[in-house]
Specification:
It is a single chain. It is built from 4 helices and no strands. α1 packs antiparallel against α3. The two termini are 27 Å apart.
């Protein structure tokens, strides 16, 4: 269940990042895809605020950013729970020793 919850949260974060990119692209604010590009996208949006990006649009962007931050934090919490469970579960630890195939 922990892994499915993490997977759901990761998909939600991906949806939010894609929405952020899409909304900002409508105003000519463009950055590469992917989670590592979000800080650059935020920086570009802040520079465009008030000029290419109207204040109302900026408020909407801030809502999406808050959701991304929240989901990102929850993913970290679930990952910590997965790791804590793994440390206490003998079967999980044995599975970890199986070599992965390429």
């Amino acid at each position: 269940m922990l892994h499915r919850t993490r997977d759901l949260l990761v998909r939600q974060r991906t949806m939010l990042v894609n929405a952020l990119r899409g909304h900002l692209a409508e105003y000519g604010v463009i950055a590469p895809q992917g989670l590592p590009s979000v800080p650059k996208l935020i920086e570009l949006a802040e520079k465009a605020r008030g000029t290419a990006l109207p204040e109302l649009a900026w408020r909407c962007i801030r809502l999406i950013l808050a959701q991304i931050e929240d989901v990102h934090g929850r993913i970290g919490q679930v990952e910590q729970e997965i790791l804590a469970w793994h440390r206490t579960n003998e079967l999980s630890q044995r599975l970890e020793t199986i070599p992965a195939s390429a």
